[in-house]
Amino acid sequence: MDAAMDELLDRKTASEGELKEAFCVFDGNEDGFVCAVELWSVMRRLGFKEGRRYEDCMRMSHIFDEDRDGRISYLEFRRMMEGCEDFLVQIDGMFMP
Fold first, then answer.
1. Dihedral of the CA atoms 33, 38, 42, 48 (nearest 10)?
2. pLDDT single digits (tens) 48-79
3. Count of CB atoms within 10 A of residue 75's CB?
4. Does the pTM exceed 0.90?
5. Do 40 and 61 meet the contact criterion of CB atoms below 8 Å apart?
6. DSSP 59-83
7. Residue 89: how many CB atoms within 10 A of its CB?
8. Which residues pair with 16 in a beta bridge?
9. What pLDDT was estimated at residue 89?
10. Which terminus of the chain is more solvent-facing, meaning fewer CB atoms within 10 Å of its CB: N or C?
11. Is residue 96 part of a domain?
12. Which one-letter DSSP state was computed for residue 15?
């Protein structure tokens, strides 16, 4: 599944099926939502410097949690990934080195 994430991030465009597959990678407990802990786990596994600290993932989760329920739904995830370039710009520089 990490290959699917790599391809998605490389192309910066994805089909609905690819987005759903990527969401499943992040949704570790399969409850239909991505929490900061799940985000942290995947970001570290994929080697993103932005995900090294849990606090960073909490901030990222807060940015895209539109309904403020403390977790990212599939629709919120899709919006985040559809604007992947904007997402990367938005989180760039917000983290401690």
1. 100
2. 877 788 998 898 889 899 999 999 999 999 88
3. 11
4. no
5. no
6. HHHHHH-TT-SSSEEHHHHHHHHHT
7. 10
8. none
9. 46
10. C
11. no
12. -
Residue 62: which CATH number? 1.10.238.10
Q: Which residue has the tokens 């990212």?
A: 72
Beta bridge partners of 73: 33
Residue 97 lies in a domain: no
* Distances in whole angstroms, Cα of residue 71 to Cα of each of 13, 32, 60: 23, 10, 11
Per the structure, the complete domain to which residue 6 belongs is given by: 2-91
* pLDDT of 83 above 50: yes
Domain annotation covers residue 12: yes
Supply φ then ψ for residue 45, to 5 degrees: -60, -35
**Number of domains making up the chain:** 1
Do the Cβ atoms of 58 and 37 come closer than 8 Å?
no
Higher pLDDT, 29 or 95: 29
> What angle in degrees, to the nearest 10, is found between the helix axes of 16-26 and 74-82?
120
Which residues make beta-bridge pairs with 9? none
State what percent of residues in the chain have pLDDT above 70.
70
